[in-house]
């Protein structure tokens, strides 16, 4: 929400709260402002990253998935609904439904109205124009017992390089071990008892 406020205050030079109110009213200009912000969110996500090859650094965008943009949009809607729009609902209880934005409808299905239109725009337009992935960019696989052992050994042998309390490191070890045998809660409780003695 801080990025939202800075963008509208410094770049567009309008009241950021007004955009939310106008979005509730279904004003097209508010939808355009939201699209412009989300476009900027993707374009301005670039960071200088270390790369292998002839160059030492390369400037790359860190937001590369339509799902990431949708998550940002979802969080903005939730924040606006619990702050700006809640205040307006308190001021005008007779218009409570007007001052409400939801990402999903009451049946937890796809929404409708301006929020839904922008959500569709993210996947159908923004994703194409900025070359955002619309499917998973990686394959999810489970960690093997060997993977967990490598992690545990590294955490144990390189303890001096890990800036955290020994109790936290030991608790993380318990979580990893619990992942192998499904003993998560019992192991965590046992480790917390050991570390508090």
Brief descriptors of the model:
single chain, 197 residues, mainly alpha, 2 domains, two-stranded antiparallel ribbon
Structure in words:
It is a single chain. The protein is mainly alpha-helical. It has two domains: 2-129, no CATH class; 145-196, no CATH class. Helix content is 61%, strand content 5%. The chain contains nine helices and two strands; from the N terminus they run αααββαααααα. A two-stranded antiparallel sheet has the order 1-2. Helix 2 crosses helix 3 (28-43) and helix 7 (145-157) runs antiparallel to helix 8. The radius of gyration is 23 Å and the shape is extended. The chain starts with a helix and ends with a helix. 13% of the residues are buried. The model has no long low-confidence stretch (mean pLDDT 83).
**What distance separates the N and C termini?**
43 Å
Helix content: 55-70%
Instruction: Give the quaternary arrangement of the chains.
Output: single chain
How many separate structural domains? Answer: 2
Assess the beta-strand content as a share of residues. Answer: 5-15%
What is the H-and-E element order? HHHEEHHHHHH
Order of strands across the main sheet: 1-2
The number of helical segments is 9
Counting helices, strands and paired strands, the structural category is: mainly alpha
Strand tally is 2
Radius of gyration: 23 Å
Mean pLDDT over the residues = 83
